[in-house]
Amino acid sequence: MLAIIFVLALVCALLAYLLIGKDKKNSKLLVENSALNSRLETLKEISDIAVADSKNVVLEDSDARQKPLDIASVRTALRFNGFTPEIPDTNEPNVVLFKEGNTQLRFNAQNLPFVSLEVGFGLDNTKDEALLRQAASEVTSHMYIGKVEIVDNAEAIIFSAEFLCDSYVYLRDNFKQYLGILHSANDRFFEVYNILTEKQKEEREAVFSGRSFVQSSQQNKVQS
Prior knowledge:
This protein has helices at 2-66, 71-80, 129-143, 168-209, 213-223; strands at 95-100, 103-111, 114-122, 146-151, 156-164. It has 224 residues and is α+β, with helices and mostly antiparallel strands. A 5-stranded antiparallel beta sheet has the order 1-2-3-5-4. Helix 2 crosses helix 4 and helix 3 (129-143) crosses helix 4 (168-209). The longest helix is centred in the N-terminal third of the chain and has 65 residues, at 2-66. The radius of gyration is 39 Å and the shape is elongated. The termini are far apart.
């Protein structure tokens, strides 16, 4: 009787061992299966996002080429180029203000399709007004698109880039090029002003030293 009980106990123990092993194996398989399903779902999400992005690019490009140039699309073009348009001013609804660093600029769209980029600075009273206006005139006449204007009594200076823009896509793709014209006009203006200032200084020194070109010409004229 004891032998039979021992055998039955041994069989039960064996069955329990097998069942535990099977449960562990099933648990491991469930974990592996869950991980595999998770990876598959992740890959599917990535694939879906890629397809969606591809469709969005095509749609964006198609929409962009049909988008007219108006004040709303001007603001969109600025954002596309990394700038943040400021809140519209009700007094100037067709002017968009934005900043490049700490410098505020204006995009003037009041006369579409003719537009202009503008930036202004104050001038101190140590500058020679006549030379300022001469430098502004010289830069404007040579740059064509880039313009320089001395306002009031040489209290301020305005740099601008004026151009014809008949589509959103053109503005979007060429905006930074016209912004670069403003920088070039700025650099060129002060370069010319410094040259004119130095030339004026040399001429005055020549007059006081008796070596001026004007005096020499007058002397030659008298002698002739």
